[in-house]
## 1
Amino acid sequence: MKIAFIGLGNMGGGMAANLVKAGHQVNAFDLSEAALAAASDNGCATYTDAAEAVQGVEAVVTMLPNGAIVKSVYSDSVIGKTPEGAILLDCSTIDVATAREVIAMAEGAGYDMVDAPVSGGIAAANGGTLTFMVGGSETAFSRAEPILQAMGKAVIHAGDAGNGQAAKICNNMLLGIHMIGTCEAFAMAQKLGLDPQTFFDISSVSSGQNWSMTSYCPVPGVGPQSPADNDYQGGFATALMLKDLKLAMEAAVSSGAAVPMGARAAALYEDFNGAGNGGRDFSAIITTL
């Protein structure tokens, strides 16, 4: 299949490369010359104009920083420029309202489209082991699924347009809450005289067990290797966690949902980010405790 891929950042570059590995012909676009050079090395045809990249393709995949950019790219360079009958897939993490608005625009122009944000981070993007949470019609999902499977280990239909984004921000709000709670527990355990490894051995098989502890432990040298073992470099940046928590807070307001723990997590990550830690892994928040 001939696929245009727009947005070759930390996540998009690896995703586009995996589409090539799966046998697809990929037209790649990004504003960064370095990203385009890397895409070329990975077997993509590269373009310096998004509207040119979508010419003659059967699908368009986008991975962009925010909702405003997603809306602009689809309005200016994708809808009406991509051949009729192509399937459109936005894998960015954006607000639910914008996701639904862009999909409505696409459908109004005769395209099938899904919102398909991801979970898994840079390593999973490079390794093709992402989880995709997909919103859109049954028809759009069935067309998008084979493309997404080339980039991930799990592709889950979350329901109608925008529901992929809803699932993503709810999941990441829970992740932020879990990480802070895990950090608090380890910090208190140490102050009470418990060895961190001993606490891990106990809690990881007890009722306090959670992914932030057993798969992504914030304490260096404890549990499987994580960014904590690399001075909190790599992984999932604090700035990105804060972005997702802000999206969750916006969604909570618009839907009337009560999220006291989510709001507190957002406030704590706001402070941590503001102290110059935006580029550090989000588990580094343990250093404040």
## 2
Amino acid sequence: MSEHLIVNEIYRSIAGESSQAGLPCVLIRLTGCNLRCHWCDTPQALDEGEPMTIDAILDRIAAPSCPRVLVTGGEPLTQPAAPQLLQRLCDAGYDVMLETNGTLDVSGVDPRVRRVLDIKCPSSRAAEETCWANLEHLRAGDEVKFVIADRDDFDFARRVACEHKLIGRCEVLFSPVLDRLKPAELAEWILTDGLDVRLGVQLHKIIWPDRDRGV
């Protein structure tokens, strides 16, 4: 029998973040999170959602067809059946990405999944929850994202990236918090410090600035 998950929303969109930004994808947003970040931009995913079987989720995303699927939240790994969902998506032939807040063990996630670890910076008020052992499980296809609100966050992200030798081992993204840090200012810090990281912006919020769901 197919496992159940609580699903906040499923929709087709343009990937707004990560190295896949700009490409069409199907987004599966699961309900629930073990954190309460200071600048969380998806509070509706904390407790809003409906139960669905994995079979029903696969049926839902089958049409219109799209080769890429992003599983996000909230924090998807708070749901015990999330690894099974990821495996079933891979088995179905999708290019699967997982967005996770980096506080829960990712070692059991299907190796075919591209894992995007969001390492929390101090301004989130959740940096102390990071599961640092996850950085040892990173592969070349994985990504690490730092969401940066100020210079202290930038210095923290730079230190973590250098101390754990992330640059060159996987994709590293520095993304500004919307309305807290201008992308141009973050770009200047990256260039001044000579960091070989990707500047990420939330493309979906540029395309659909007045929507906070279904984008």
